[in-house]
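Lab meeting, item 3. Inverse folding demo.
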């Protein structure tokens, strides 16, 4: 066994290592210690297992001391490094046992089962002055740096979001391999052994590192959907959206969809979506695929630095640790969100089936496994569309009906969809209007005819580039079909139904790029935000609220917004949306659009409805015109957008609203808006109030022109404020 050498060439004695947990996943650490021992970097000094390893298991390791007493083993062997690969709920205590004895650590992921335990571990490690590496092996891949360099160089334009996908399979025996497997708690202690926090934890951790928001203080919000097909406590099929806020004022968004119930298990990956291309990273293979607009695809393979090797180099040569605890703080925010979330929703029996297993993860060939039908495609769609399972739609309805049903049930039980985690500090311009330094999400449900027809996210956690604002999503027909889309891949700043204006005195309240005369769409640091200030009235069928339109902490407008749901008949209901915008900044403002800034036909801005993309473009018509080209820019009193699954009838309900033109998209993507500034800027003198009211009929199935006209007449039968 040759001794290692420092950069200067001097021989360095091999560092004695103790491994706690040498079976199961611990066998990989055993193999790695064996490999590094042959290079003279480490010396296998001890094995901590309840049952000693036999000669076959110890082959190539010499005769390390074996004991079930971890503390005694560390002391008797004089260990410099402890590798801890034991059940999740034992991590903190074992890490502190090593730290108290001056032993450095390679601690398996997840580092702890709760954020409080994580903080306790970090505090103890720091106080002891020992090094700690967290075992996210994928973060040793040189491809991570390559991806970040490509992003920094603008290879794919501006990043729109990061998706992560993992479709693995685990047989029933996997969940029976240990008492803690698949448990949220065991004997009163947190375990949190779910698909997001353990088997496919690398998907999220890798995405966070690429995003640059991997520290605890970077987390701005978390939305979770936790499901299970197996008879376990924890989740085996789940998705999450994490929003990050970086120290430089930028923001990011990550959506991960994962399962252990795949039909055809495949390699997990992270995909970075840009305005000019994408980068796909298969993190177990260290392989990248760069796809850029106007270029041929490029595939590259990268080296990887082993984390134990890196820890040795840190101790002997001062090399920087790749995965210190503080660089996993954001991931631990996710663990805490999963820990405190409601119990995972059991999937209905019709959503999954049982087939013979492969022995994956158990060694029990032939053990049965549960498969969620269609989950492989849903996982891929979640990463591609940056959508949660409940948000995925094929135009005729939810792609995962079980997810939509569970999300609605969770919303009724908890008062909001998913979990949110406020971050400790909020950079200027991204926090709440009161400046408390935290931001709490909130949502309410609208009901009509005894059914939930819409959810209003009045305090969403969104990236600054999306011009954060309240929105309605999902909006559904009385039959349950979704008629809105959230953050679609084609325009991630489209948010169901919202008030979205691209130019209020130069501030962007629409999201995305700003159209600049002579330059075209440009990424500018000019995004505003709409903040919910409070309820004036809140009922089951609607609400009136006050909203502040702000830019860099300066309030430009105050809005009184009223939204009401009312039934029209058994198959149709109406969403009544009134906005009263008042200039409160003390000086004259004006509302503009890309059209007023030089882009013909793009006069959008105001009330905007983004329906879901379907298998073919929807039809659009008014009382006397048909087709996108004829309807776009018209001043028709009503407009209909129609598919086989649903019909939306939009009507201006005041004279001022009826004078505004309709902005319509159907071929490129479905969208309808009532434009405040079609071909000229709308002046807003100080103190002036502008009122608009749009009422939308939401119907199941296809309505022809005569029926749609009948709905429109009923929508505008009661005049609102002018």
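The presenter then showed the designed sequence:
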């Amino acid at each position: 066994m040759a001794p290692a050498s420092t950069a200067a060439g001097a021989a360095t004695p091999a560092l004695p290592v103790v491994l706690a947990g040498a079976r199961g996943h611990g066998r990989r650490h055993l193999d790695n210690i064996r490999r590094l021992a042959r290079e003279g970097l480490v010396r296998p000094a001890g094995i901590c297992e309840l049952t000693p390893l036999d000669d076959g298991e110890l082959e190539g390791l010499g005769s390390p001391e074996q004991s079930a007493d971890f503390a005694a083993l560390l002391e008797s062997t004089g260990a410099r490094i402890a590798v801890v690969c034991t059940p999740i709920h034992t991590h903190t205590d074992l890490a502190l046992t090593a730290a108290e004895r001056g032993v450095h650590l390679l601690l398996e992921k997840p580092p702890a089962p709760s954020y409080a335990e994580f903080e306790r571990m970090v505090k103890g490690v720091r106080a002891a002055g020992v090094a700690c590496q967290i075992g996210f092996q994928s973060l040793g891949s040189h491809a991570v740096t390559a991806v970040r360099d490509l992003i920094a160089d603008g290879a794919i334009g501006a990043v729109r979001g990061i998706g992560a996908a993992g479709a693995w399979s685990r047989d029933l025996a996997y969940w029976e391999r240990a008492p803690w497997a698949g448990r949220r708690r065991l004997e009163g202690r947190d375990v949190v052994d779910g698909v997001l926090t353990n088997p496919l934890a690398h998907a999220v951790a890798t995405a966070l590192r690429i995003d640059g928001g991997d520290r605890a203080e970077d987390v701005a919000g978390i939305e979770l959907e936790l499901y299970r097909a197996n008879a376990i406590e924890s989740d085996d099929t789940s998705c999450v959206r994490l929003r990050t806020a970086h120290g430089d004022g930028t923001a990011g968004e990550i959506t991960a969809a994962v399962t252990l119930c795949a039909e055809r298990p495949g390699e997990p990956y992270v995909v970075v979506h840009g305005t000019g291309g994408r980068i796909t990273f298969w993190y177990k293979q260290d392989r990248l695929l760069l796809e850029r607009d106007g270029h041929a695809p490029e595939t590259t393979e990268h080296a990887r630095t082993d984390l134990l090797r890196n820890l040795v180099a840190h101790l002997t040569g001062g090399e920087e640790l790749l995965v210190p605890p503080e660089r996993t703080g954001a991931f631990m925010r996710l663990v805490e969100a999963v820990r405190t979330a409601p119990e995972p929703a059991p999937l209905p029996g019709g959503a999954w089936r049982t087939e013979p297993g492969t022995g994956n993860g158990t060694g029990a060939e032939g053990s049965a496994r549960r498969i969620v039908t269609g989950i492989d495609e849903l996982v891929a769609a979640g990463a591609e569309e940056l959508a949660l399972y409940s948000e995925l739609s094929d135009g005729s309805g939810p792609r995962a009906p079980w997810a939509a049903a569970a999300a609605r049930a969770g919303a009724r039980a908890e008062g909001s969809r998913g979990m949110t985690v406020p971050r400790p500090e909020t950079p200027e311009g991204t926090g709440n209007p009161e400046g408390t330094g935290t931001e709490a999400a909130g949502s309410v449900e609208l009901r009509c005819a005894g059914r939930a027809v819409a959810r209003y996210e009045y305090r969403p956690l969104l990236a600054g580039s999306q011009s954060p604002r309240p929105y309605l999503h999902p909006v559904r027909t009385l039959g349950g079909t979704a008629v809105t889309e959230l953050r679609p891949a084609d325009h991630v700043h489209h948010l169901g139904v919202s008030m979205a204006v691209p130019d209020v005195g130069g501030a962007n309240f629409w999201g995305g790029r700003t159209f600049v005369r002579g330059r075209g769409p440009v990424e500018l640091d000019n995004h505003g935000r709409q903040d919910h200030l409070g309820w004036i009235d809140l009922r089951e069928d609607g609400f009136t609220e006050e909203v502040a339109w702000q830019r860099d902490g300066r309030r430009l407008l105050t809005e009184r917004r009223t939204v009401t749901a009312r039934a029209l008949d058994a198959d149709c209901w109406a969403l009544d949306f009134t906005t009263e915008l008042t200039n409160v900044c003390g000086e004259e403002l004006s509302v503009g659009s890309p059209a007023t800034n030089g882009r013909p036909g793009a006069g959008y801005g105001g009330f905007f409805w983004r329906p879901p993309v379907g298998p073919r473009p929807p039809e659009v018509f008014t009382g006397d015109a048909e087709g996108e080209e004829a309807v776009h820019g018209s001043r028709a009193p009503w407009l209909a957008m129609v598919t086989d699954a649903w019909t939306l009838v939009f009507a201006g309900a005041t004279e001022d609203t009826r004078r505004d033109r309709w902005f319509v998209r159907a071929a490129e993507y479905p969208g309808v808006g009532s434009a405040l500034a079609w071909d000229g800027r709308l002046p807003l003198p100080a103190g002036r109030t502008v009122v608009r009211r749009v009422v939308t009929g939401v119907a199941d199935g296809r309505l022809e022109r005569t029926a749609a006209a009948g709905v429109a007449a009923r929508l505008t039968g009661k005049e609102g404020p002018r």
